[in-house]
């Protein structure tokens, strides 16, 4: 009897539990605020095309459709309608497909290749006259590219895209059929499937028994790293010309091949806002054709009218500017018109608004849907006129009278073939015409990255030359010009805002040109270079593999040499690096050359095979060395300059408290540039983790202060021989009194500022080749000795320095390029030029003295005969006869330039048996700051062997 009773009890418990869970998954529908009285899909539809609910299990826009559901619908519709053609243009890092859905009449779809060819013919005014162009224009349908949800947690756009596809392919009304007879609509329904999948999963995890309209809840926000970004936590809406991610690479290739007249980009913004549409406000990039702004106003008025008809609130411009060319408006520089949608975010359950009402998710989707249809209707009306404006612009771009006509961008010949190949890949992907010179070219003048005009400049043979006078001249200028123009009125308002409340007109970084981002030496020549040029051809690697050699080497000038070393070490190969240039067997071996000897690897039976395989995989030059004798005073292979490396065992601190962008770009850089194993560690477990497994730890930009236990764990680990690499705000945490080491932020050392100035002068004098031989040879003691603190510049008091510090901090940039002076004798500077462009934001200004090394400092000192006296710049002194250059590109106020002048951007300090390496900024910013990124790779791979106490193997 007891057994039966227990079985019945278990049965009842199970039923009740099952019902309880069923109730948890059900949502009450009694709340009238949550019922949307609008109808997204209005009209009549064909019975042969399944409606979205068939694939979703709910009405379009009622809830968030996940990537699998959207994909299922698109693939099914492809077999149900003759109005669409689906192209998979890329796959994400996680293997999810990205689709471009071409929608038009069957007749137009049958001739897509011809239409695409005619569009591209119209794009090059060098091959057409007006009569031919007009004939093409009259024959072309309108072309629209409608893209949604590039940020994965901005979901309503993709759900509107699904409704839009269905409406266009299934509607039986005459207006839709007429539109498709005269238009090709390309819908990119979900631009970031990986991020959307992450956010959709969080919706499942945080959904409760009743709808939640509180926009602060996890249901609405998600959790770290949130759904905004892709797999590697990149913001894809900043990647359109940088092209680091597969989603962008595939998307841009297809956009560029079709050159659509209209591009829309459906986003979401703060949940308590309404709906933002174009046109943007200032600052606008001066390279955007004025005709596009004219059409933006026309489309905006007609889109606003569609909202007015439904009594929906909206606004234009206000916070939206188009200065940085890496947004989705990238195509404007190629002649397309761009419209941004920013819908207030509602997640799934809707959000209670300030006025007390609740806006539902379906209403948000409806806003995006109506905007889509309004813009398509506008394009149908204005397409022919827009094509004619486009043709006028294409003629202007290649005209000898255009603003682009007499300007060429030159990347000076260098041996960093890996970085040059990466640059060329990005430029060619955008259809930019590239050339080179087989012989030196002399030009009357050239402008350097420091803003100097060099007369009678010689362009070395083998340089990469990009004339601005070519079909896509605005794009060439936008991404290669050293400085982007900005109106004085914009700067006035920006400064007023800075002083009033610290706000800004600048939505993003104000410097981005490829030559500085990539850290490549470059000049601008104010003439159209065309003579003596041939099409660019990338370097063909020379790989000499002599099995009888004593060693094999890869030049340290090439960034890929670091990966070569790291990958071989991961396979158990002993590797050396040369820290002073030499020549062996008539082979020039610069600093940083990776050197593998047979003697170091006596047990490796397939050593030559491993070396050869990695060189081929990396497509890098490889030389064989038959003798270790360096002629004259050059280093020989048995001396101290051939330094044995230690295999890096890397961990990245991650999760809550860290910038997902910096975590992601660090993670991506290791996977992309090195391809070696590493771990991410949740910092919540740092104080009890076994850190002995790692010899190198990366601490990305962080916002959560470390507690004493975490700091103690890291400090003990460093003292035992670890290499700690910290970025930005995390570097500031390390550089404090209770941090690790003696590097400090500028605001903490102003009471002893002169000590830091003396250390700076000592550093500079240590590289000077000036010497007074008479004074050195004199037998009598000289009564006149030059001391760094007696140069004539009046030192500022600590109180004055503190007042300036408080004032100057207000003016820190949102992203500008500053000149960096590199210590070219330090092992971390392998492969780096003496001057390196640095992207500088509102980040810590680091200070060093004594044994703390400044591997890179802010500011490059140049000779200036007009400077007849030494000058004080805050705490530091600029000697007589010299000037200090800080700003290279972008907006950096004089106050900020003075604040960061001579501060350290990269520091290295010995702590116990280990070392601390601090980067003032983020060395892998958007995967594209390749100059300082190389220094970071050197620190990561070589640090464990070159900067810590060597361990003797027993």
Automatic annotation (TrEMBL):
<dbReference type="InterPro" id="IPR029062">
    <property type="entry name" value="Class_I_gatase-like"/>
</dbReference>
<protein>
    <submittedName>
        <fullName>Peptidase</fullName>
    </submittedName>
</protein>
<dbReference type="Pfam" id="PF00246">
    <property type="entry name" value="Peptidase_M14"/>
</dbReference>
<feature type="domain" description="Peptidase M14">
    <location>
        <begin position="79"/>
        <end position="240"/>
    </location>
</feature>
<keyword id="KW-0732">Signal</keyword>
<dbReference type="InterPro" id="IPR000834">
    <property type="entry name" value="Peptidase_M14"/>
</dbReference>
<feature type="signal peptide">
    <location>
        <begin position="1"/>
        <end position="22"/>
    </location>
</feature>
């Amino acid at each position: 009897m007891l057994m039966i009773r227990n079985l019945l009890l278990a049965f009842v418990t199970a039923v009740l539990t099952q019902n309880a869970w069923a109730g948890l998954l059900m949502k009450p529908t009694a709340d009238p605020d949550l019922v949307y009285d609008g109808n997204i899909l209005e009209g009549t539809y064909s019975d042969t095309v399944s409606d979205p609910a068939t694939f979703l299990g709910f009405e379009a826009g009622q809830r968030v459709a996940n990537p699998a559901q959207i994909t299922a619908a698109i693939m099914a519709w492809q077999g149900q309608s003759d109005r669409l053609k689906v192209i998979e243009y890329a796959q994400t890092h996680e293997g999810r497909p990205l689709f471009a859905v071409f929608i038009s009449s069957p007749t137009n779809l049958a001739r897509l290749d011809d239409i695409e060819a005619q569009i591209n013919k119209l794009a090059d005014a060098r091959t057409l006259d007006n009569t031919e162009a007009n004939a093409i224009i009259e024959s072309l349908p309108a072309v629209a590219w409608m893209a949604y949800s590039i940020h994965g947690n901005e979901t309503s756009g993709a759900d509107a895209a699904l409704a839009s596809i269905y409406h266009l392919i299934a509607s039986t009304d005459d207006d839709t059929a007429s539109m498709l007879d005269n238009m090709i609509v390309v819908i990119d329904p979900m631009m970031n499937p990986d991020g959307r999948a992450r956010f959709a999963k969080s919706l499942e995890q945080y959904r409760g028994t009743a709808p939640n309209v509180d926009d602060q809840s996890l249901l609405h926000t998600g959790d770290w790293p949130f759904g905004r970004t892709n797999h590697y936590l990149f913001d894809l809406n900043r990647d359109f010309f940088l092209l680091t991610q597969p989603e962008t690479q595939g998307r841009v290739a297809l956009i560029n091949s079709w050159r659509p007249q209209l591009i829309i980009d459906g986003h979401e913004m703060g949940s308590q806002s309404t709906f933002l549409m174009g046109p943007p406000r200032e600052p606008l990039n001066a390279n955007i054709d004025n005709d596009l702004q004219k059409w933006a106003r026309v489309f905006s008025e007609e889109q606003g009218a569609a909202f007015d008809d439904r009594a929906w609130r909206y606004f234009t411009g206000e916070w939206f500017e188009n200065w940085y060319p890496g947004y989705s408006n990238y195509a404007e520089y190629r002649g397309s018109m761009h419209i941004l949608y920013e819908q207030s975010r509602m997640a799934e359950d809707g959000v209670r608004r300030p006025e007390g009402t609740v806006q539902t998710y379906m209403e948000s989707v409806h806003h995006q849907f109506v905007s889509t249809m309004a813009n398509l209707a506008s394009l149908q009306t204005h397409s022919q006129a827009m094509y004619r404006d486009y043709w006028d612009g294409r003629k202007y771009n290649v005209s000898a009278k255009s603003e682009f006509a007499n300007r060429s961008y030159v990347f000076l010949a260098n041996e960093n073939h890996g970085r040059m190949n990466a640059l060329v890949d990005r430029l060619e992907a955008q259809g930019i015409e590239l050339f080179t010179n087989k012989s030196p070219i002399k030009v009357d003048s050239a402008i350097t990255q420091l803003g100097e005009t060099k007369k009678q400049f010689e362009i070395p043979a083998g340089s990469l030359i990009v004339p601005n006078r070519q079909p896509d001249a605005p794009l060439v200028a936008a991404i290669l010009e050293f400085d982007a123009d900005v109106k004085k009125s914009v700067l006035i308002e920006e400064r007023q805002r800075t002083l009033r409340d610290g706000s800004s007109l600048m939505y993003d970084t104000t410097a981005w040109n490829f030559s500085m981002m990539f850290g490549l030496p470059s000049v601008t020549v104010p003439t159209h270079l065309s003579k003596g040029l041939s099409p660019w051809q990338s370097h063909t690697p020379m790989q000499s593999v002599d099995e009888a050699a004593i060693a094999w080497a890869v030049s340290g000038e090439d960034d890929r040499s670091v990966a070569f070393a790291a990958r071989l070490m991961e396979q158990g190969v002993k590797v050396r690096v040369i820290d002073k240039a030499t020549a062996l067997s008539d082979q020039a071996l610069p600093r940083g050359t990776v050197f593998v000897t047979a003697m170091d690897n006596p047990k490796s039976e397939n050593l030559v095979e491993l070396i050869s395989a990695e060189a081929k995989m990396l497509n890098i030059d490889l030389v064989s060395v038959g003798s270790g004798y360096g002629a004259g005073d050059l280093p020989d292979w048995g001396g101290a300059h051939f330094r044995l490396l230690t295999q890096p065992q890397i961990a990245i601190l991650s999760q809550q408290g860290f910038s997902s962008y910096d975590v992601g770009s660090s993670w991506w850089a290791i996977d992309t540039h090195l391809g070696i194993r590493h771990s991410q560690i949740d910092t919540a477990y740092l104080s009890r983790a076994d850190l002995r497994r790692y010899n190198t730890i990366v601490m990305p930009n962080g916002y959560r202060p470390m507690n004493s236990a975490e700091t103690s764990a890291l400090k003990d680990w460093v003292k035992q021989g670890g290499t700690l690499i910290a970025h930005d705000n995390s570097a500031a945490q390390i550089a404090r009194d209770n941090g690790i080491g003696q590097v400090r932020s500028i605001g903490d050392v102003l009471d002893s500022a002169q000590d830091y100035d003396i250390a700076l002068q000592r550093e500079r004098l240590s590289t000077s080749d000036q010497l007074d031989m008479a004074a050195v040879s004199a037998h009598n003691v000289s009564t006149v000795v030059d001391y760094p603190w007696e140069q004539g510049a009046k030192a500022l008091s600590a109180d004055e320095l503190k007042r300036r510090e408080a004032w100057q901090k207000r003016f820190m940039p949102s992203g500008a390029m500053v000149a960096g002076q590199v210590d070219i004798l330090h092992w971390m500077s392998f492969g780096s030029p003496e001057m390196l462009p640095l992207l500088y934001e509102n980040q810590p200004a680091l200070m060093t003295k004594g044994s703390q090394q400044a591997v890179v400092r802010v500011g490059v000192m140049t000779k200036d005969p007009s400077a007849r006296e030494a000058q004080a710049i805050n705490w530091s002194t600029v000697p007589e006869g010299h000037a200090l250059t800080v700003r290279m590109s972008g907006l950096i106020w004089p106050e900020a330039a003075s604040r960061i002048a001579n501060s350290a951007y990269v520091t290295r300090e010995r702590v116990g048996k280990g070392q601390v390496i601090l980067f003032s900024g983020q060395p892998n910013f958007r995967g594209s700051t390749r100059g300082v990124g190389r220094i970071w790779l050197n620190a990561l791979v070589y640090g464990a062997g070159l900067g810590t106490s060597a361990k003797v193997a027993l």
